[in-house]
Structure formats: structure tokens, C-alpha cells
Design a protein that fits this description.
Elements: H1 2-8, H2 25-39, E1 57-60, E2 77-82, E3 85-88
Antiparallel strand pairs: 1-2, 2-3
Helix pairs in contact: 1-2
Length: 93
């Protein structure tokens, strides 16, 4: 929902807020990854996929560039990896 709101400038009820502040999907991804890590002074640990970083990422069912911006929030998460280990779906042991 955060990414969708940045791209559409609409809240979860569809109300428009600051339409002149819309960003692209690429900009929203940057805000949520690299810029988020920088804001918490953790850019050496996370925010991008690079050797030596935590390897936290998600695998999405669809590319957010390829869906209607009002449907970004509906993209299913296929896998979540934290610290290089799959946390969703739960790995069977």
C-alpha cells in the first residue's frame, strides 16, 4: 500500500492526497529501499542487493511496473528472504 500510495497519491479509501507529488514506480522502489536505509544510517547493511549486505528482499508475483497503479497493493508476495534465509513461505524442516 505504501508503494501504491506514493505512485497514485491515493489512500486506501481511494481519496487523493497531493496528486502533484506522485512518483514513478522506480522512484517509489528507491524511496522504500536505498533511501529508507540511508534515513536510518544503515545503507552499508541494506537498501540494495550487493555483496556483504543482509540479503533482505521479496519476490513478487507481478512486476509493479506492469500493473495498473491502483492495483499495486494487490500484488502477491511469493517469497520473503531475510538475512539470506527464506522467511515466507515458511521453509519446511
Amino acid at each position: 500500500m505504501a508503494m501504491q500510495s506514493m505512485v497514485t497519491r491515493k489512500d486506501y479509501r481511494g481519496r487523493s492526497w497531493g496528486a502533484n507529488q506522485k512518483v514513478t514506480v522506480d522512484e517509489a522502489l528507491t524511496i522504500g529501499t536505498i533511501n529508507g536505509a540511508h534515513a536510518s544510517s544503515e545503507e552499508r547493511l541494506k537498501g540494495s542487493i550487493a555483496a556483504g549486505k543482509l540479503a533482505d528482499f521479496v519476490v513478487l508475483e507481478k512486476d509493479p511496473h506492469d500493473v495498473n497503479p491502483d492495483e499495486i497493493k494487490d500484488i502477491k508476495i511469493n517469497r520473503t528472504v531475510v538475512g539470506g534465509k527464506t522467511t515466507y513461505p515458511k521453509e519446511r524442516t
